[in-house]
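Consider the following input, taken from an annotated entry for Lipoyl-binding domain-containing protein (Oceanipulchritudo coccoides).
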Amino acid sequence: MNYNVHSPKKHSVTIDRKADLNGLFEVAVDKGSYSVEIRKVQDDGSLKTLMIDHKVCPVEVERRGDGLPVRVFLKGVPFDVDISKMASTRFRPELPDREISGEVRANLPGQIVALFVKTGEAITTGQSLGILDAMKMENELLAPKDGTVRSISAQPGQILAKGDLILEIE
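Applying the prediction step yields:
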């Protein structure tokens, strides 16, 4: 996340939010780099104490109505913060690969209008498999993954309940 901090001179501050914020993380100010650890947080979630390069540093953050910081007080010294340039405001941990099911099911009760594939046919992710008419709207059925159509459980004209199996991909 990038912040521009204004004081008598402008500083570029980058916070490495890829790391777990319950441990040490890096903060770069201009060309310098600091090891930071959150030590104390108030009941409302605002910061109270940081360890910056193994030194205790009281901190207070003044926020706008939308929650973004406008002023940071480090050891009582105020620094205005301009969030005019920000790469990301969210910490997104890397998720492990998960198995994607090859089952295509009716997401709403409806009627199969058409199927565009046959058993044994090779398909790719996002390929149109058919159309389900649900609540007077045609919903395109898309392949959730690459593979081969293993079985087809529904036929055009068939009425399905929500969750009924339409076809399987292996």
